[in-house]
Each structure stands twice: as C-alpha cells, then as structure tokens.
Design a protein that fits this description.
The protein is of the alpha/beta class and about 120 residues long. The chain contains 4 helices and 5 strands, in the order E-H-E-E-E-H-H-E-H.
Length: about 120
C-alpha cells in the first residue's frame, strides 16, 4: 500500500502555484524533516512512507525528457520527496493531453489506476 499519491498538471514547466504552496506549508521542519546539530542534512521524518506521482502535460513526453530534461520531476523527487523521506515508487508523465489521438486517454487512466494501487 502506498501512503501518498500525487496527480497534477505541469504548468510552465512546474507545478501549479497552489501545489507548490501546499508543499511550502505542509512539509515543514518538525513534521517532514528535522535539522540535527552537527549533521549536514536533516533527518527524514516521512521515512517508511511511499509516494506515486502522475503528471499531465501538453508537451510530448519524449520532448519533456530529452529537451527539457524533465526539470520539475527531476527536482520533485530529490529535493522534496526524497528530502522528507518519501520513497517514490512510481513517477510518470503523460501527454500531450491537448490534441491527443483518440483512445490515448485509456493509457492515462491505466496509469492513474496504477497510481491508486
């Protein structure tokens, strides 16, 4: 069983502002991590929990990875989720959403079902 599932659109190469705000307000010291005197990195207080991530995008996924180096997911995993101790068990981008071929949504829904576990 997974502890956290996150589905969100990619806007201008990053998360929607409200999602970023949620991270800023919810993943606080004392809850998500704890600084320890003499240690360069904090303790990960959410260790032992897992997360799955599904991001929708209008950019073709291959382009997102090849050209943009998938900057958002590259930051989300190590700098937010791993930093707090959440182990990412699935991370997937799906798209392009706009103008997608008929039936493409079946694969997206399958990915969402995998996210739900």
């Amino acid at each position: 069983m997974h502890d956290a599932g996150l589905v969100h659109p990619l806007w201008w190469g990053g998360p929607p502002a409200k999602l970023k705000g949620l991270f800023d307000r919810a993943l606080l010291p004392g809850f998500a991590f704890a600084y320890v005197e003499g240690k360069p990195l904090p303790d990960k207080l959410l260790a032992g929990r897992t997360a799955r991530v599904l991001v929708t995008t209008d950019t073709p996924v291959w382009f997102l990875w090849l050209v943009y180096r998938n900057a958002w997911l590259g930051a989300l995993r190590p700098q937010i989720l791993d930093f707090t101790g959440l182990k990412v068990t699935m991370i997937k981008a799906v798209g392009p959403i706009r103008g997608a071929r008929p039936g493409a949504d079946k694969g997206w829904f399958a990915a969402a079902r995998r996210l739900a576990g």
